[in-house]
Amino acid sequence: MAKSYILMNGETGFEVEVIASLKKIKGITEVHGILGLYDIIAKIELESEEKIRETITKVIRKIPKIQSTLTLTRSESQEIFQTSKKIIEMILGQDFAQAYVVIHCKKGEEYLTLKNLSHISEVKEADVIFGFYDVICKIQASNNKILENIITKVIRALPHIESSMTLNIINEQENDIKKVSDTEAMGQFVNTKIGEPSRMGSK
Predict the structure, then answer these.
(1) DSSP string of 99-150?
(2) What is the pLDDT of residues 35-86, one digit of tens each?
(3) CATH number (domain holding residue 99)
(4) What is the pTM of this model?
């Protein structure tokens, strides 16, 4: 399975609408509004890199209000970071502080960096990637202070890291997106009911 991360900039004020549209696209497994140089991050997983490229160019970039995209493709050469145990640690329904961190490493040290990240319990997922950056990881902590400490005092202190950029996930938008999805689902339900033939008066 091929995997890529897409960093996007969109028209200001339309982030929730764009995220709701992205969630409907085949292969999109995760999408969040973020703070930083970019507005939205999405993770896409499909059968091949060709399918991912096709989805990005023919579907995602056609979404109104998306102004630019940057694709970071995962390297398939090694599977050092095991996400299964990390995922089990997540508690559903808890309001976590979350962020993605994209990292520049010294040349040839990408997989050692990935291995080092795998020992940090707050790092829930990480991949070596091709593109403008070398490694991307997702961090989850119980509050923003712990999240900040993990990034500044633990991750940035790892050997072979030259620079990093933090993309904080906007939790408030997550609730707005859920409201949009619920409203759309209710609209579909109402339309179905309106379209059904009336049974009033039937024996």
Answers:
(1) EEEEEEE-TT-HHHHHHHHHT-TTEEEEEEEESS-SEEEEEEESSHHHHHHI
(2) 989 999 999 999 999 999 999 999 999 999 999 999 999 986 556 666 555 5
(3) 3.30.70.920
(4) 0.80
